[in-house]
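so the lab meeting is tmrw and i was supposed to have these ready like two days ago... anyway. pasting both below. for each one the top line is the aa sequence and the line under it is the structure tokens. i havent really looked at them closely yet so no promises
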Amino acid sequence: MSIEVKNEYGKIDITNDVIAQVVGEAAIECYGIVGMASRHHIRDGLTDILRKENFARGVIVRNVGEDTHIDMYVIVGYGTKISEVAYQVQSKVKYTLQKTVGLSVKSVNIFVQGVRVTNL
């Protein structure tokens, strides 16, 4: 499935995989995020941290009518306040999609799949 953006020059089709990649890149830049997790953690292994090329496996982009909803599966760092980290990720994702793709997002849902101790 893709999102179609029309402007005075024509139309652009943006696939959900591209949106998921942009969202994953924006999320890992946030403080407190260790990495992205697979949305199928039972099938793929217990909360394995996804590499950069697999961010789409940790993000679901749902298009319901004109609304776009994002579901993200993340792993947070130990000692961080999960609610603050989730809020920062939501804000960063909405801002990044608006500036990069010109896409307004209705909701960004964060699912914390695990907590990891990181070396500082």
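ok protien two:
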Amino acid sequence: MNTDTITAPAPAAPSVHRRALLTWLAVYPTITAAFVLLGPYLGHLPLALRTLVMTGLVVPVVVYALMPLLLKAETKFARRHGRRK
């Protein structure tokens, strides 16, 4: 075992309340933008199909792009302000 390398402990995950807020901060504007941009093109489709298309676009954007950015920003904010989660 190599004892020369010291690793920093992994940061604690945000509380469930912070995760909910971060998720909302990612989802709401993304859905709003999707409706503004795609609404005129999808308005003729049945509701279930519109919802399928919207969620098929919004979920990957939120999961793979926005949530990692928000979690990174939240970690920096918490460290800067000395907060524990």
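from a quick look at the 2nd one: DSSP finds two helices and no strands in the chain. The longest helix spans residues 47-80. will dig more after coffe
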